Amino acid sequence: METAVAITVGIVFGSGVYLVLQRNLMRFIFGLILMSGAVNVSLFVAGRLTRGAPPLVPGGASVPPEGVANALPQALILTAIVIGFGLVAFALVLLLRTYERLGTVMTDELTERLDDPKPVPGFGDDDALRSDGAS
Amino acid sequence: MLTAILLTFLAGGLAPWAARRAGASAGWLFAVVPLALSVYFASMLPRVSGGITQVTPWVPSLGVDLAFRLDGLSLTFALMISVVGVAVVSYAGGYMKDDPLKPRFLLILLSFMAAMLGVVLADDLIALFVFWELTSLTSYFLIGYKHEKDESRYGALQGLIITGSGGLAMLAGFLLLGNEVGTFRISEIVAQGDAIRASGVYLPAFVLIALGAFTKSAQFPFHVWLPNAMAAPTPVSAFLHSATMVKAGVYLLARMQPALGSTDVWFWTLTLVGSATLLATAGLSLVQRDLKKLLAYSTLIALGALVVLLGVGGTVASEAMIVFMLAHALYKAPLFMVAGSVDHEAGTRDVTALRGLGSVMPVTWTVAILAGISASGLPPMLGFIGKELAYEALLPALLPLVALIAASVAMIGIVGQVVVRPFWGRRVEAPVERPHEAPASMWLGPLVLALGGVTFGVLPMLLEPLAVPAASAVYGAPLDFYLKLWHGVNLPLLLSILTVALGLVVAFAWSRFQPALEAAFGGVRAGPAGVYDAFIKGIPKVSAATARRVQSDNLRDHLVIILGFAVGLVGLTAFLRGGILIPADALVMPSGTPYEWVVLILAAGGALATVRAHSRLEAITALGVVGFAIALVFTFFAAPDLAITQFLVETLIVILVALVLMRLPDGLLRERTGAVHRLLSGGIATVSGLLLAGLLIAVTAQPMDLRLTEFFNAASYPDALGKNVVNVILVDFRAFDTLGEIAVLVVAATGVYALLRRVRKQPPAADQGAPGGPEGGP
Q: What DSSP letter does each residue of B174-211 carry, written as one string?
């Protein structure tokens, strides 16, 4: 089954890479989400797949029974999922802010818009924009 | 020796504190430092012939020691530095009497002195390099001392750039040489001259080291920095830029002569560069009318002569080089100080504006005449002996001989301008009202040095205990010779007479041709000076153009390069080197339950659908499908903790994405990308997907090393009393990782809050015109 999951991981990862290479920052973030999911599963596969035996110590015993799933990659992935979430959340809000200030989400337009921002009206705190524009 | 250098550095460190307390007498006070050094080094004279070595380990792991070695050559330089240093420091006390920055000046000057002593005493190439760069750095600060002036900053930077670049080339040469010989100890390298000359690194090492020497000693075409260094206060010019630092390159060549010398390359490089320096600077000196610039060009002439003598090599040339150099130090430093005194007391350094100062500055004029006779190479001065020896040594080499004669003619012209013209005549002319004699601090030192030139000229045998071991060190084998003032009528003497005759003509005609030459060439910045300016101006242009090409401001271009390289280079190498081995049985259709297949197909399909999504709803849905499918994969394969986390996180991400997307117009998801770029990113994406899948298949086909997992399984309950092994790993065994993870989340959350806080705030319609910054409040 590892092979099938590995191929799926490859498809998801490739889709993520394709999206990351786009001009649209929104699609860039989609790519980021897909890539981080794919990387998590690839760690999981590398630790081998086990069905139906989570790494738990049964009551009364002091060690888990033979043949439980590999606990180490699970611990690593748990951290990775949470960190990935933090990254995506921050990137999303940054994107929102960028759009609001500059009026675009296209990477190749960002620099020129810095000199000539086209803020989106009715979109958050306009007084901050106004004071920047006046200075 | 290490102690002497460190104490000098220490004295420099104390200078700011002590000079403030000593006030006007600070110059006398600090002249004690070089005086003590002079006495110390003079006391070494009887013991020097065999060389004295002193080693302190510095970086033993790299074979770099603070090794010092005192032989004839080092001692000559050390005495030159400390004796001229006495005169310069005491002179500086008077010259900078009212300067509030004098303490800082003394600090740098004494630090320079310590570094310069390090250069000439070091017996380790790396130590020599470090001291060498310290002299460049202190020179930078001293040239730029009047930092509010443009020309000071320009001169300081130019000196640093030229000598610093040469220093780096020299370091490369040192490393080549040290690598070849197997040691950085100079005395050991010098002993293996034949092996070095026969090896393949000889030529590159020689060229690199010569570059260091030529830049430091201002040889053509690197001579441009020295005249501009005249922006420094005069004591600095007298000390660094005539008597000591600019001779560091000559010292290096002399030191390396036994190792690198006596080859055709050595002979031709040094004689040609030295001759070019002699001729170019002799010609350029004719245009000048600033006292210090004139002296700077005469210093360049002397440096050219020293390099030519080293290039020719042999017994007489080695003697001539040492005597010529000592004579130069004894006359050039006083001449500079005379120029400084004239500037100080009469208000200008422009020779055309000065007349008749001899009657009001008699002592200064006496110093000038004594030094000037030596500079002109007339008897009975040491300069005469040096020049006679130089002519004799160069007799077999026609080009350098002609160049030296031409330069000596120019030198006499310069002496006429510096020593005669400002002082001659009855009527006093100067920009200041009443020019007067300089204070004792400003003539005592120069007078002693100039008298030294007379004494050693009349009684040259006094110099033999120093000159004989020094010339032996240059030659590389023990020499035995006697110095004489009068050699009888011979060819060098006839050449000297010719030189003096021509020199007098130049000196008398100077006031006629100089204005015409200055009018014609004064503003021209062609040649090396123009190249330097173009180079400095070119650097920002080239780097801006490079940055525009390489540093695109488009995120996508960077990612294409990074991912393209990662995928292309890493993937290719992995495949070519057999890093990815896919066994045949891995490709046999695996057994899986229908649920599992459905979930995998959903994940892959969701990912592809995200790529193709054109509307917000499509994108959110597709992303959600992938995320929840991954959560199900975790569920099926015995990872309940992961599944729960993934479900929660995925839900949050979908909500967040939806929140953000709903604020953006729907059309924004559209991608306008050209076909070429689509193909490129598609290629990179496909290869990266294949690479990851292939790697995973290859990895899972290998046997699994479960030692760590077994440790955690066994230790989880007995050590941490936890029954969920995953949780125990997270909160016990890797607790600090988890703490770090929490910290990252807090940082991200803070960032999100800070960014969102502004978005949430509604625009206050009432007080639109009211002042109030963006930080006005929540």
A: HHHHHHHHT--BHHHHHTTHHHHHHSTTHHHHHHHHHH
Asked if A81 lies within 8 A of B649 by C-beta distance, the reply is: yes
- Quickly tell me which residue has 């929840």 as its tokens: B628
pLDDT at residue A132, as a whole number: 44
A86 in contact with chain B, both atoms CB, cutoff 8 A:
yes
Please, which residues 624-653 of chain B have a Cβ atom closer than 8 Å to chain A?
Answer: 626-627, 630, 633-634, 636-642, 645-646, 649, 652-653
Residues B324 and B219 placed together within one structural domain of the fold: no
Let me know whether B652 and B712 are in one domain. no
Residues B247 and B275 in one domain: no
- The number of residues in chain A equals 135
Whether residue B305 sits in one domain with residue B164: no
- Number of domains chain B contains: 4
**Residue B589 has what pLDDT?**
65
Q: Is B750 on the interface with A (CB under 8 A)?
A: no
- In SS3 terms, B208-258 reads as HHHHHHHHHCCCCCHHHHHHHHHHCCHHHHHHHHHHCHHHHHHHHHHHHHH
Reply yes or no on whether the pLDDT at B380 is more than 90.
no
What token pair was written down for B644?
A: 């729960």
Chain B nearest-CA residue for A33:
B623
Interface of B with A in 536-575 (CB under 8 A): 553-556, 559-560, 563
* B769 confidence band (pLDDT: 50, 70, 90): very low
pLDDT for B415 equals 92
Instruction: Compute the distance between CA of residue B78 and CA of residue B36 in angstroms, rounded to an integer.
Output: 12
Going from N- to C-terminal start, the domains of chain A cover 2-51+70-134
Write out pLDDT tens, residues B588-606. 666 778 888 999 999 999 9
Instruction: Say if domain A2-51+70-134 classifies as CATH 1.10.287.3510.
Output: yes
- B365, B437 in Cβ contact below 8 A? no
Which of B725, B730, B774 lies nearest to residue A128, judging by beta carbons? B774
Residue A134 has pLDDT above 60, yes or no: no
Same domain, residue pair B197 and B230: yes
pLDDT exceeds cutoff 60 at B759: no
B360 CB near a chain A CB, below 8 Å?
A: no
From B452, B486, B514, the end of a domain falls on B514
Taking CB atoms and an 8 Å limit, are B591 and A1 in contact across chains? yes
Residues of B in contact with A44 (CB under 8 A): 633-634, 637, 639, 642
Q: What pLDDT sits at residue B117? A: 94
Return the minimum-mean-pLDDT range out of B286-295, B539-548, B637-646, B761-770.
Answer: B761-770
Residue B772, by phi and psi: left (phi above 0), alpha (psi -120 to 50) or beta? left
Per-residue tokens: B612:
């193709």
Last residue of a domain, one of B514, B538, B572: B514
Determine, yes or no, domain membership for B534: no
B80/B176 same-domain check: yes
- Whether the CB of A69 is below 8 Å from some CB of chain B: the reply is yes
Nearest by CB: A96 against B592, B646, B759: B759
Contact flag A23-B673 (C-beta cutoff 8 Å): yes
The pLDDT of B111-128, averaged and rounded, is: 94
Q: How far apart are CA B336 and CA B445, in angstroms?
A: 12
> What is the C-alpha separation between B117 and B119, in angstroms, rounded?
5
Regarding an ipTM greater than 0.90, the answer is: no
Which has more confidence, A130 or B376?
A: B376
User: Which chain A residue shows the shortest CA-CA distance from B655?
Assistant: A89
pLDDT of residue B671: 67
Which residue among B554, B587, B689 sits closest to A10, beta carbon to beta carbon?
B689
pTM: 0.70
Res B208: pLDDT: 95
Closest Cβ opposite residue B723 in set A24, A56, A92: A56
Among A24-28, B206-210, B561-565, which range has the highest average pLDDT? B206-210
State the residue range of the domain holding B235: 1-261
- Read off the pLDDT band of A123 (50, 70, 90): very low
Identify which has the larger pLDDT, A129 or A73.
A73
Same domain, B141 and B213: yes
Q: How far is A134 from chain B (nearest CA, A)?
A: 11
Residues B508 and B454 in one domain: yes
Inspect the interface and report whether the beta carbons of B726 and A88 lie closer than 8 Å: no
The dihedral region occupied by B731, where left means phi > 0, alpha psi between -120 and 50, and beta the remainder, is alpha
- Which residue of chain B is at minimal alpha-carbon distance from A5? B600
The count of CB pairs under 8 A between chains A and B is 321
